[in-house]
Design goal:
With 346 residues, the protein is an alpha/beta fold. It folds into three domains: 3-37, no CATH class; 47-184, Rossmann fold (3-Layer(aba) Sandwich); 188-343, Lactate dehydrogenase/glycoside hydrolase, family 4, C-terminal (L-2-Hydroxyisocaproate Dehydrogenase, Chain A, domain 2), CATH 3.90.110.10. The protein contains ten helices and 16 strands. Helix 2 (55-66) packs across helix 9 (265-279), helix 4 (134-151) packs parallel to helix 5 (164-175) and helix 6 (188-202) crosses helix 7. 40% of the residues are buried. It binds nicotinamide-adenine-dinucleotide (NAD).
């Protein structure tokens, strides 16, 4: 008798049945139910909800739409008129794009969401440090996460609001979800800026530059020069050049905000990158913010480090073999985050 095993992954559940060829009629109802489940899993529409469609949220939504990342895109904002306007504007472009449904929604729409991106909050003012934003944004998150968690139990929460490592930690604590499903954009944007600046200096495509920014998305972040390379070749730069490149990376947001009031194009692409890694189950290595557990001795804090991101969220954290000086800086970054966490009594 031939034994055929079928397996389908529907969200996080796996269902396996053994269909014994000789017993077709006995197993027929079960087999039909199973086939229906497979069909349902293939026909389930991919939905992304963006909460907070200001500069970052609307640019992210538009980027996701242009790149055809989902079937359904829901926009939520305290300023409902803005969400309605954005949805209309994007819908008017659908004649030039692939098929997608875009609407200004409510928190009930989070129920079916694969990913809920939170970019709501108050933006950094010129000269304002990210940590000064903290108290204002925690209050906003308190109300948003309460609503999202009422409707969504098994999606992935992707946080971009600053200070992103603290907002991610706050959301994780509040949700009670496993930390792999609560992700901060972390130092992915900073790493992209770093790679761009190194590439620009050396006249090399940034996609061929391997270099990381880790730690806080903010003032205490650090460059991992000990592992920076181009196709395995050492990056030859003097100390002054290195310092300048890192400072320009770390302070990029301040310069852009000074120039035009907000940063949004590159962060939108970074969020799109994370969504793609999740939805396509890529297992891509991305420097997102995640909960550390004895990472070079650092625990119970969210920081940006290289992680393997797939359909489950953060599948695994990669232990970078950083040198002693880098370990010291990372620890300082973690300590700073812990102090802020205490400050908001979490
Ligand atoms: N993680 C990163 O790398 C990164 C990069 C750029 C900006 N940011 C952060 O993203 C956040 C948003 O920046 P922005 O420039 O889009 O700001 P913005 O002011 O343009 O947009 C914020 C939006 O949030 C909405 N909002 C406020 N309270 C809300 C609530 N309770 N419910 C729903 N919506 C609410 C506002 O109406 C507004 O539309 C800021 O915290 C900023 O610092 C993060």
């Amino acid at each position: 008798m031939t034994k055929i095993s079928l397996m389908v992954s529907h969200r996080y559940q796996c269902l396996t049945i053994n269909y014994l060829q000789g017993d077709y009629f006995k197993y027929e109802p079960l087999l039909l139910r199973f086939i229906k489940l497979i069909m349902a899993s293939f026909s389930k529409k991919t939905r992304i909800v963006v909460i907070g469609v200001g500069a970052v949220g609307s640019t992210t939504a538009y980027t996701l739409l242009l790149r055809e990342r989902m079937d359904e895109l829901v926009l939520i904002d305290a300023n409902k008129e803005k969400a309605i306007g954005d949805a209309l504007d994007m819908n008017h472009g659908l004649a030039f794009l692939g098929k997608a449904q875009v609407w200004a929604g409510d928190y009930e729409d989070c129920a079916e969401a694969d990913i809920v991106i939170i970019t709501a909050g108050v933006a950094q003012r010129p000269g304002e440090s990210r940590v000064d934003l903290l108290k204002r944004n925690v209050a906003i998150f308190e109300s948003i996460t309460t609503e999202v968690l009422k409707y969504n139990k098994d999606g992935i929460l992707l946080i971009a609001t600053n200070p992103v490592d603290i907002m991610s930690y706050f959301t994780w604590k509040k949700s009670g979800w496993p930390s792999h499903r609560v992700i901060g954009s972390g130092t992915l944007l900073d790493t992209a800026r770093f790679r761009y600046l190194i590439g620009d200096k050396l006249k090399i495509d940034p996609r061929s530059v391997h270099a990381h920014i880790i730690g806080e998305h903010g003032d205490s972040e650090l460059p991992v020069w000990s592992h920076a390379n181009i196709a395995g070749s050492e990056i030859v730069l003097n100390e002054n050049d290195r310092e300048e490149l890192f400072h320009n990376t770390r302070d990029a947001a301040y310069s852009i905000i000074q120039a035009k009031g907000a940063t949004y194009y590159a962060i939108a692409l970074a969020l799109d990158r994370i969504c793609t890694a999740i939805l396509k189950n890529e297992a891509a290595v991305l420097n997102v913010s995640t909960l550390l557990n004895n990472y070079h001795g650092i625990s119970d804090v969210y920081l940006g480090v290289p992680c393997i991101v797939d359909r489950s969220g953060v599948r695994e954290i990669l232990q970078l073999n950083i040198n002693e000086e880098e370990q010291e800086l990372l620890k300082k970054s973690g300590d700073k985050m812990k102090e802020l966490i205490r400050y908001i009594s979490l």
